[in-house]
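User: Modeling request: complex.
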Amino acid sequence: MALIVQKYGGTSVANPECIGIVADRIIRTRQQGHDIVVVVSAMSGETNRLLSLAKEINPDPDPREVDVLLATGEQVTIALLSMALHARGFKACSFTGSQVHILTDSAHNKARIKKIDGQRVRQALEDKAIVVVAGFQGVDEQGNITTLGRGGSDTSAVALAAALKADECQIYTDVDGVYTTDPRVVPDARRLDTLTYEEMLEMASLGAKVLQIRSVEFAQKYQVKLRVASTFSEEGGTLITDENESKKMENVVISGIAFNRDEAKLTILGVPDHPGIAHAILGPIADANIEVDMIIQNIGRDGTTDFTFTVHRNDYKSALKILQDVAEQLEAREVLGDDNIVKVSLVGVGMRSHAGIADEMFRLLAEKDINIQMISTSEIKVSVILHEHQLDTAVQVLHEGFGLGRPD
Amino acid sequence: MALIVQKYGGTSVANPECIGIVADRIIRTRQQGHDIVVVVSAMSGETNRLLSLAKEINPDPDPREVDVLLATGEQVTIALLSMALHARGFKACSFTGSQVHILTDSAHNKARIKKIDGQRVRQALEDKAIVVVAGFQGVDEQGNITTLGRGGSDTSAVALAAALKADECQIYTDVDGVYTTDPRVVPDARRLDTLTYEEMLEMASLGAKVLQIRSVEFAQKYQVKLRVASTFSEEGGTLITDENESKKMENVVISGIAFNRDEAKLTILGVPDHPGIAHAILGPIADANIEVDMIIQNIGRDGTTDFTFTVHRNDYKSALKILQDVAEQLEAREVLGDDNIVKVSLVGVGMRSHAGIADEMFRLLAEKDINIQMISTSEIKVSVILHEHQLDTAVQVLHEGFGLGRPD
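Assistant: Request completed. Predicted assembly structure:
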């Protein structure tokens, strides 16, 4: 008998019928003899409904009161799901974040979990109840209701699994696992049985939006086995765990190909090549709350250097304006920008011990006449910046070239 | 500077526009220099919306989970009202029932308040905030969310006023006070400036549904001054207080005429006149959870007696059936019933010291050829049962005969 934490998102509990399907799935796991803690989000649409009520009343609502308001969303779901489990003859008991003492800091709307006292949950499990907990919410030391920010329910589930030392934390969503790449681009894309935390972090940060990055970090830190699966199918999903366990089962170099269509690049040419220049360029960007993704600076020539970085396309125009001011101050030669680029990345822990992966990637792209504008690498990934028109071809050729498709 | 508790019901906070009107009214009181604690209900319609979601999932939902579900209704309102106060430049802070420790017993859906720890509210008041508290809800000693049952927000407000020793508890609703009788029956009906707790209790129990009976009892017990006023008008409303204060201001014998159209009467004729007979008749009725209102038994004759009582019209048929079984067992002569009756009552603490009020009532009714079927009296009221066709005439003649109309 294991202790399983299951998390169901907003689309999985969108209406009474969906809630019934979720209840049935929980019961199937229960009937295998496991103890179960369920974490749920608000019914999809509810958070937006509440926020628009708030905006009608106050265009700039107080973050503390926004949390009081939004926390009702999950509270409705825990009650309804418990009722659905009762209707099927199973003992169940709901708890808000405050009732199970999900203690957070006081950063309303984006609180971080500090501690979970699992006592109340353990007691309910001993009473043979299925425990249903409101995700996304907690309580600070003064007893104020807090929320973890959008997607925070994944983090709630992982944190509860860590606190309770659960055997597995299962995240149910509308996809049935993590794929080698987006099946809309490569129809042959294959669902991965296992993946390491680091690979999942790279995949997630590169636009494979299956799990919240925070929740994966949390799972890695506390060594919680994470499984991503679909609420509406019986497939086993993808298990995310540490390297040793993952690679025992699957012996591959590359796990997947991630990509991100939302990138834009900015280059400042001919800046003086001296210490502090990177900060002089990126400081004003950071001050404007613009997040920077890739940063590339090559060796200088003739006392000057060129500096390139990428930002989200939504931030392209404001970043460009800031960079032009910076260029003037630094007496740089020129500022260039391009918001028609994409990033494509090979991800896999196997890369660490295999030379030549990057080179093979460049060869495959060259064969298709795809020009690589920028390159950046980490221990477990190689990312390239390409023109957006070449995204699909690039992903397809890499997916096939690295043998990621379904076995024939 | 006084401490005022204000309570606004569901129709007063039905939508963002109404919430804005409520915020404006709170601020007017605030600007008179008072400390304010506001108690609010769920937006009208919300409780029914939530209950119908629950019924879709489970026709017989667990009372504990119903409370978790329904408590979200008021939680939404406290957040929105606080935001509306902020938007107008005023400091405000919301609290759920659990956050201000409205401690109740564990009788879910109909919990009773045991204790309120006013510490958190006092602290917020000291911080110069308008305090907004969720009505209708509390928390039991195990930390479970409880609700007080429909209309419980009035009770929350009075209980908070008692705990905080507030100077006045103002209940805002869609009528602007308590009237001498229903203005739809007597257009000349007059709003009362003051009323005693006892009079209000008689008026409320007789169908003048302005305040929940429980909240009036609570106010009387803790000597909380209650004021009933309209959210949407600037009239001063009706102040409900104890006898001495009330009668200092107003020297009248009769305060109002209450009536109830929902009555039905049942009579069992010729039952043996011996001890225990009332219990033999009413026991089975009580066992069927039927509430009995008036009970009349006159002196017996020839060793038998007649026994009459009234019930809500909805319970008439089942009560009649039970009474027929009882009659058979007791070998009673006959069972009679009538569900076309109404009850009309004169209410007033002044009656205690004025003989002849009942007689004057009977004289006025006789003049209009109205037949009195039953009579029952208490210290501060005289009730008569009449045929329903005579209700309006009876109320009008009594209202005029006792001089309750507006002064010329």
